[in-house]
Amino acid sequence: MNKLKDRWGITSNRQLIIIFIVFGITGTLAARLGEPLTLLLGISQDFWLYWPVRILIILPVYKVILLMIGWLFGEFDFFWNFVKKMLRRLTPKSLYDGR
Description:
Blueprint: H1 2-8, H2 13-40, H3 50-72, H4 76-90
Helix pairs in contact: 2-3, 3-4
């Protein structure tokens, strides 16, 4: 746990527990929203691209929910930095200057 706290710059176990709770709530909520959102787009499980489309929908939804739930738990700054790091890793370097 101390390695994780050092890596994330966390000072207390309470903060670490809150972060784990936020990740748990966010992951569950994003997964639950995946199917209704794909159905809203008119894509059913019979469609051969159902899972790739669902994953592409869940990725941005997850980030937005992560920020909202993180804000509710008072950890917006941590999750804002986490989302920015995640976006940098998923975005080709040619689209940004690498900072």
